[in-house]
Write a structure and sequence with these properties.
By secondary structure, the protein is an alpha/beta fold. The protein contains 14 helices and 20 strands. Strand 12, helix 12 and strand 13 form a beta-alpha-beta unit. Helix 2 packs parallel to helix 3 and helix 6 crosses helix 8. It is globular, with a radius of gyration of 23 Å.
Length: 438
């Protein structure tokens, strides 16, 4: 693609009128091999997409571009942007947690760009579903995280199949990432934006807990900031489960996100947060990277982050793209506070906790059919507006997956909507509609 076409699509299809300095610099470089160090929330995805697309041949010539990322969530986030900007190119996402046969179908005709987790991509290669000999451009996004998660061996085997590789873009949290020996040894151009990790619009607030168990302090804090979209970070899966259970018993609606949950459960937790059916997500550091959740107003460090990198990436979930945000650090006398944990002020939540203020006004409806059944967002809009008491403007975010879909509606009308569509058909198909309970 030409740079003018890319910038036109960014402005007219993504609504971004001006690039940030990092994106401008990568758009201008002619270097074949690029090392980009940048924090989460900095616009890194768009920054590497521009040189990726500039280096691609015309569409319809086989797979020429490959992007590898460490998580399914990050793969989907990148795919959503590439599909919009790379008009005319076939883009396919490959990741675990859904049907292999659906992915196999998506590989015919051969996509121009594949965006995948390393393990899933190698699985397809070993099955003979795809070959990458003609691939010319490779992006290894969050390479340091890929290595941390044990994908080094998979990436090495995949890259060795790319016998015509001409350009590599490697992104990392810092420029200290050691260059792997299976990548080209020719000159690399480094772009270091890692120092931009701290947003000037991020307020860091310390909240002291009188008890070593901080759960009651967390509940008081959440009650003091009702209707704000919040991610609560803990250090272990077991802690996430325990804290999620505590909040449910306290009648504080919250989602749950950690690596012990299957892909579907994690996906639904994120969607419910995105569409407003819950405002709170209890998560491990798995959620600190790769999730692009709109309008995240605050993060809470329930546990002190174990590394400076965790601190940066957690905080990067809020105050994104010039918006304001707050990071709350709950501390007790049992905590040893490392140098990288700092705050601008202290705050002590006061008063009784009225949990009714934390109840979202939005609910999520689930449909048991999706893309593979030829259902689109427009189909769901027409179905609900024709068969339910929804008024114009009341229907919220709709997400359509391979074999299911969800739609956000006013919580006060959810029961009536489910009852009213019980016998209705969607595109002459019998459909089961139910309310998702967080």
């Amino acid at each position: 693609m030409t740079q003018s076409d890319i910038l036109h699509n960014i402005e007219n299809r993504l609504g971004i009128a001006a690039l940030n300095p990092m994106q401008i610099e990568l758009a201008a470089t002619d270097a074949d091999n690029i090392l980009l160090a940048a924090p989460t929330g900095s616009g890194k995805t768009l920054a590497f997409i521009i040189p990726l697309l500039k280096r691609l041949a015309a569409p319809g010539r086989g797979c020429r571009g490959v992007v590898m990322a460490p998580s399914r969530e990050l793969v989907l986030q990148i795919t959503s942007v590439v599909k919009v900007v790379a008009a005319g190119y076939k883009v396919t996402a490959l990741y675990g947690g859904h049907k292999m046969e659906d992915e196999v179908k998506s590989l015919t005709p051969v996509p121009d760009i594949i965006i995948a987790t390393p393990g899933r991509l190698l699985d397809h290669i070993n099955r003979g579903n795809i070959q990458l000999a003609d691939a010319e451009v490779l992006v290894l996004d969050e390479y340091d995280k890929c290595v941390e998660l044990g994908f080094e061996h998979d990436m090495r085997r995949i890259v060795r199949r790319m016998t015509h590789l001409k350009s590599v873009i490697l992104t990392s949290a810092t420029t200290a990432a050691e260059m792997p020996d299976y990548l080209p040894r020719t000159a690399w151009k480094a772009f270091d934006y890692s120092s931009g990790a701290s947003s000037s619009k991020l307020q860091k607030v310390r909240v002291q807990s009188p008890a070593v168990d901080k759960a009651d302090t967390l509940a008081a804090l959440l009650c003091a900031i009702p209707q704000r979209k919040v991610m609560v970070f803990v250090n272990h899966r077991e802690s996430a489960e325990r804290l999620h259970t505590f909040l449910k018993k306290a009648r504080i609606p919250a989602g749950l996100y950690h690596g012990g949950l299957d892909q579907h459960a994690r996906q639904m937790a994120v969607e419910l947060l995105q569409n407003g059916s819950v405002n709170i997500l209890v998560a491990t550091d798995l959620a600190a990277r790769g999730l692009d959740i709109e309008d995240m107003e605050a993060v809470v460090h329930y546990h002190i982050p174990p590394t400076a990198e965790n601190w940066v990436h957690r905080n990067g979930r809020t105050a994104r793209n010039g918006a304001e945000g707050t990071a709350y650090i709950i501390t007790s006398e049992a905590d040893n506070l490392p140098d990288y944990v700092e705050w601008d002020r202290e705050y002590a939540p006061k008063g009784e906790c009225d949990t009714s203020a934390l109840t979202p006004s939005t609910a999520t409806l689930h449909f048991n059919i999706g893309k593979k059944e030829k259902i689109s967002k427009g189909d769901i809009v027409g179905f609900l507006m024709a068969n339910s008491p929804l008024a114009p403007g009341e229907l919220g975010r709709i997400t359509v997956f391979d074999h299911e879909a969800i739609a956000a509606v006013p919580a006060a009308k959810a029961r009536d909507i489910v009852a009213s569509v019980a016998s209705a058909k969607l595109k002459n198909k019998k459909v089961r509609v139910s309310r998702v309970i967080p």
